[in-house]
Amino acid sequence: MKQDKALRKTLSQFEPQLPFGFHDKVMKKIHLEAELQKKRNYILDILVAGTVSFLLFAGAIYTLNNYLGYNILKIFQGLNIPSQHGLPVSFYICMSFIVLLLLGMDFKLRQIIKKGPGKGPV
């Protein structure tokens, strides 16, 4: 019994020695994980924003078409596409272009805002 207490007392007096650079390695791993988390969150934010934008757009078209009796495809009747489904396809291509343009503008504006005032254009 006395031997166990003496051994515990002796072992508790010694502070464990960590290898050289242990703290630096741990901090690098923490920073790397934080950067990866930021990238994951950024990609997730873009996916959520794109999905919400698409759903809002689809909901607006559905509401206009079914509840208000407005056929938005009448705008594109002047386009001559020799396909059976050409009119809806051209409509979706035009809307996709507009959405991509708006997403690009949003990305550029976010970069400018992130740089801060007085730091010039991107």
Description of the structure:
The protein has about 120 residues and is mainly α. Among the domains are: about 30-70; about 80-120, no CATH class. The chain contains three helices and no strands. The longest helix has about 45 residues, at about 20-65. It is elongated, with a radius of gyration of 30 Å. The chain starts with a helix and ends in a 7-residue tail after the last helix.
Q: How many strand segments?
A: 0
- Uncertain ranges: none
Written as H for each helix and E for each strand, in order along the chain, the element string is HHH
**Which structural category fits the helices and strands?**
mainly alpha
Oligomer: single chain
Portion of residues in helices?
over 70%
SSE blueprint:
Layout: H1 2-13, H2 22-66, H3 86-115
Brief summary of the model shown:
The protein is mainly α and 122 residues long.
Looking at this protein, list some descriptive labels.
mainly alpha; 122 residues
